From TrEMBL:
Catalytic reaction list: L-cysteine + L-glutamate + ATP = gamma-L-glutamyl-L-cysteine + ADP + phosphate + H(+)
PANTHER family to which the protein is assigned, alphabetical: GLUTAMATE--CYSTEINE LIGASE 2-RELATED (PTHR36510)
Residues that span the membrane, as ranges: none
Superkingdom of origin: Bacteria
Entry's EC annotation: 6.3.2.2
Listed GO MF terms: ATP binding; glutamate-cysteine ligase activity
One of the Pfam families matching this protein, by short name: GCS2
Alphabetical list of NCBIfam families matching this protein: gshA_cyan_rel (TIGR02050), PRK13517.1-1 (NF010041)
Native source species: Streptomyces dioscori
Gene3D superfamilies to which the protein is assigned, alphabetical: 3.30.590.20
One GO BP annotation of this record: modified amino acid biosynthetic process
Designated name of the protein: Putative glutamate--cysteine ligase 2
Record's keyword terms, sorted: ATP-binding, Ligase, Nucleotide-binding
InterPro entries, per database record: GCL_type2/YbdK_subfam, GCS2, Gln_synth/guanido_kin_cat_dom, YbdK
Length: 362
């Protein structure tokens, strides 16, 4: 059974006003004081963020419990210094981001300017184990058309600097300012993958290989592929659904590779349009169908994903919980819809954040 690990980036906010707070250093210091061996939490580019990483899990119920535990522990530590955490991919309220005191991050701001300075966005990165870089490259080639569906499921960033962006995932649009981000052409082999990374680093635009921000990549530090297209999800249950579907995609792709099934040859231009459509529409309107790259209702596209990974879900015992979670999400809406409904009901972006704080920790 492939193991899965989840990295989530959370916003640090004032529990009363909902405004982002530049307190990551204090939170990390508090966590280290409580437990010097604590390695769950890390700093991110901006001081208004806190990142955690789960331990790898083979059982998705256990992974879901680990996500909930990490979120609650983050809230506890932040609460000790008068803040709290919220799983929002952008701040609904206006914010002036501040960059962490870190040589790497300072270099990024000096090199890239405003796009780096303004990049206060929170994503969810999902690591799925692979047996080798050869398998990893084959997986990357075969999951490309389906990644936009994961974005649509996760959308949780409709607001930007106090205004409705009209997008369901504005985070993903902000993220695409990076010149090394986005979908990729086919690699064909692990050697070709690594040559392309080497060529990118050789341009001097990137500081190192860790700055290759592909939608999906072979991880540098772990024997995994890392899928990076999702907003941080408002509900832990949605993050668990995304992780389970991602494992299903990786397993399905690996089986196709071993069977000699060629990857779909969609050009990167269409993949970029599919990603844009998912960010714009979320689950509320049509998406581009991964098989045809033509518009189709979001529900039909999600069901196509479930069918595509069906055998892998059956073999891991995840079919029933995934189908229920997907059905519930299509019916009730994801974070983007929830945020807009709260604003429509209350008229207050502060209320949006406060309600989302509650949902983050349940």
């Amino acid at each position: 059974m492939r193991t899965v690990g989840v990295e989530e980036e959370l916003l640090l906010v004032d529990p009363e006003t909902g405004e982002p707070q530049a307190l990551s250093a204090a939170v990390l210091a508090r966590a280290a004081r409580d437990d010097p061996s604590e390695e769950t939490f890390e700093k991110e580019l901006h001081t208004q963020q806190l990142e955690f990483a789960t331990a790898p899990q083979a059982d998705m119920t256990q992974l879901g419990a680990e996500i909930v535990r990490c979120r609650k522990e983050a809230a506890r530590v932040a609460g000790d210094i008068g803040a709290t955490v919220v799983a929002l991919a952008t701040s609904p309220l206006p914010v002036s981001p501040s960059v962490s005191m870190n040589a790497r991050y300072q270099w990024m701001v000096e090199e890239f300017g405003l796009p780096a300075q303004e990049q206060l966005v929170c994503g969810c990165h999902i690591h799925v184990s692979v047996e080798s870089d050869d398998e990893g490259a084959a997986v990357l080639d075969r999951i490309r058309p389906w990644l936009s569906v994961l974005t649509a499921l996760s959308t949780n960033s409709p607001f930007w600097q106090g205004k409705d962006s009209v997008y369901s995932s504005y985070r993903s649009r902000v993220w695409m300012r990076w010149p090394m981000a986005g979908p990729t052409e086919l690699f064909g082999s692990a050697d070709a993958y690594h040559r392309r990374i080497d060529d990118m680093v050789a341009t001097g635009v990137l500081k190192d290989r860790g700055m290759v921000y592909y939608d999906a990549r072979i991880a540098e530090r772990y024997p995994t592929v890392e899928i990076r297209v999702s907003d941080v999800c408002l509900e832990a249950s949605t993050a668990t659904l995304l992780a389970t579907l991602t494992r299903g995609l990786v397993e399905t792709a690996a089986r196709e590779w071993r069977a000699g099934t060629a990857p779909a040859a969609h050009p990167v231009e269409l993949l970029r349009l599919a990603a844009w459509r998912a960010a714009r529409s979320g689950l509320e309107e049509d998406l581009l169908h991964p098989l045809t790259m033509r518009p189709a209702p979001a529900g039909d596209v999600v069901r196509a994903l479930l069918e595509h990974v069906g055998p892998a879900l059956d073999d891991s015992g995840d079919t029933d919980p995934v189908h229920k979670a997907a059905t519930d999400l299509l019916r009730d809406g994801n974070g983007a819809r929830v945020q807009r409904e709260i604003l429509e009901r209350t008229g207050s972006l502060g209320d949006v954040v406060r309600e989302c704080v509650r949902r983050t920790q349940t």
